[in-house]
Amino acid sequence: MSFFWVKAKALGVRQYHVASVLCQRAKVAMSHFEPNEYIRYDLLEKNINIVRKRLNRPLTLSEKIVYGHLDDPANQEVERGETYLRLRPDRVAMQDATAQMAMLQFISSGLPKVAVPSTIHCDHLIEAQLGGEKDLRRAKDINQEVYNFLATAGAKYGVGFWRPGSGIIHQIILENYAYPGVLLIGTDSHTPNGGGLGGICIGVGGADAVDVMAGIPWELKCPKVIGVKLTGSLSGWTSPKDVILKVAGILTVKGGTGAIVEYHGPGVDSISCTGMATICNMGAEIGATTSVFPYNHRMKKYLDKTGRADIAHLADEFKDHLVPDPGCHYDQLIEINLSELKPHINGPFTPDLAHPVAEVGTVAEKEGWPLDIRVGLIGSCTNSSYEDMGRSAAVAKQALAHGLKCKSQFTITPGSEQIRATIERDGYAQILRDVGGIVLANACGPCIGQWDRKDIKKGEKNTIVTSYNRNFTGRNDANPETHAFVTSPEIVTALAIAGTLKFNPETDFLTGKDGKKFKLEAPDADELPRAEFDPGQDTYQHPPKDSSGQRVDVSPTSQRLQLLEPFDKWDGKDLEDLQILIKVKGKCTTDHISAAGPWLKFRGHLDNISNNLLIGAINIENGKANSVRNAVTQEFGPVPDTARYYKKHGIRWVVVGDENYGEGSSREHAALEPRHLGGRAIITKSFARIHETNLKKQGLLPLTFADPADYNKIHPVDKLTIQGLKDFAPGKPLKCVIKHPNGTQETILLNHTFNETQIEWFRAGSALNRMKELQHQ
């Protein structure tokens, strides 16, 4: 037995490619790219039956898929919202910005190969500037070092590599890897997109991905299940995007935290498979663990069209396990009549501020938001399907017929090379160009701040409308005065033609070039191409069968990549006299903690990217961003500089935050950076799920006020001592002594959600440190 498998046994690791010989009822490959990796519906069925018998009740679809992937279904304690589940995901997907740190951590683990099918997707590092081909060439040149690292690391460790230009990770997954009943984790918060094809697809940090790639059971707090019953049917200008915009308005950005959102009901059948993916994708904006739809004929149709009829046939055979049981119970139930749903537009500055399109202009006037739309942007991982492009083109075609073009600037982002090639062939791309659009590269682009915007100056108040998923302050263009609204691609197109938020395409008229008024007809387009998809260029790199000679080089002088050093272990003592680096006021997303945009180029270099730590967070002491008091010098300066000063002088520090701290992206850099610069704890009113887990993985203490009002007792000039760590145990609160400058003290309680395994991470200094400890036992 090899040294690897001796170590693997201690970790509870399953052997590599074990799935390939166990499927008994049918052998159907997970994807065309992994012909020897089979879908295990037989194992899913076996595990579901074990758990159903134990619980003695009907199961939701979410429960079937999650519990169907339990490591030990016969003995695992299962209680929604309470217990931690040990799961065996089917596969891992990583986008290039987060894959750098994930692969650096995997290299540090010392393991020779990934234990489950895994892929890397190059979509985050391509900046929108001049247009698709030119921007792609520029990105390949600028990011050559990073792309080479990811390609060689993928080849070395058995990870498939999708080259730049392939498309956005979630569209690639939908087209090639997602399937009904899959449990997939991805290092991007919009991984839930795959729920549109009936899978449980969950966004995680890179350290979680490393666990799964190492073959270690993955831990997830047993999710609650929110049911959304859909009745009626979509029609007219109302689109799948409006479903999630409506749900976001109901649940808000934290209403889905700790829960899977499960759509069901007769209205589901009126939504295309890619439309369901749109809804699941933006479920990340309500804090949901993920979202999912039951298997139906729309998914079967999509599988057939994307060359996976064999998966559809197998899913038909196991369909009872891919839909909820009759009479199953939801922790919360929302009902939406699709026939009554109106087109929505959400924003600005938060994706849960919902308005009917018919009302947003009036609200904007009242609030002082700019009415003129400077740019309309369609595409992104949320809305870049063939159907999305077709509906937008149907709107544009009507404008062109009356001699009109867009009054606003207009950009189009295809979701994948397959979508780009197919909309070029079928004429949609040309229609969108003719109306004034620029087709960008198959990448994330402006949605994540990769946008070299030239039409405004920073600080200039303006409005943009997008079909994206997030609209946090400064997210798209780094301008805090950009009022970004999210809506469907067809509404974006109509508003870009009209040039104003005051336009309602359902009721308002446009004036054609001939001076005659006309009204846009509701768009109609095929959900899938009538001919087969055009795959476009081949952009996939298979990992070689023999990678023994493959080198992965990281230069010690590189400014883009940096090998990781282990974090220090806990010293066995309480955390005394922690300095408060910043007390954050209000919303603090992962964009505030670790900005994207121009900082993406440093995602593989922990020390360099730490120079953006918390630069977007608002300091309650002075109401400013990136300006905090140095407790030693009493001077105000940038947050990262102050943290580095404390680290140099051996001063440990803490961050105090508000509600839903860390909402947004899955980026683990928002946890790695504070740990790297000497942080020890983050104390808030509440956390977003992924960020809380990421903090635990890196050996930090994410703690919450037992009484949220205690947030007001702490002042930026105070020092904090966290007591009770010697007896650190699940469910047992810690004490926090607040030491005020005048010599007075008060004690408050801090709650946590650590389980035994996570406490071991803290004691070891990080989850990766703990993995290495177990390897040497």
UniProtKB/TrEMBL annotation:
Residues 520-533 have a biased composition (Basic and acidic residues). PROSITE patterns: ACONITASE_1, ACONITASE_2. GO terms for molecular function: 4 iron, 4 sulfur cluster binding; aconitate hydratase activity; metal ion binding. It is an enzyme of class 4 (lyase). Its cofactor is [4Fe-4S] cluster. Residues 63-499 form the Aconitase/3-isopropylmalate dehydratase large subunit alpha/beta/alpha domain. Gene3D superfamilies: Aconitase, Domain 2, Aconitase, domain 3, Aconitase, domain 4. GO terms for cellular component: cytosol; mitochondrion. Pfam families: Aconitase (PF00330), Aconitase_C (PF00694). It is found in: Mitochondrion. Residues 520-557 are annotated as: Disordered. Binds 1 [4Fe-4S] cluster per subunit. The keyword Iron-sulfur applies. It catalyses: citrate = D-threo-isocitrate. Residues 579-707 form the Aconitase A/isopropylmalate dehydratase small subunit swivel domain. Keywords: 4Fe-4S, Iron, Iron-sulfur, Lyase, Metal-binding, Mitochondrion, Transit peptide, Tricarboxylic acid cycle. InterPro entries: Acnase/IPM_dHydase_lsu_aba_1/3, Acoase/IPM_deHydtase_lsu_aba, Aconitase/3IPM_dehydase_swvl, Aconitase/IPM_isomerase, Aconitase_4Fe-4S_BS, Aconitase_4Fe-4S_dom, Aconitase_dom2, Aconitase_mito-like. NCBIfam families: aconitase_mito (TIGR01340), PRK07229.1 (NF005558). Catalyzes the isomerization of citrate to isocitrate via cis-aconitate. Belongs to the aconitase/IPM isomerase family. This is Aconitate hydratase, mitochondrial. The lineage of its organism: Eukaryota, Metazoa, Chordata, Craniata, Vertebrata. The gene is ACO2.
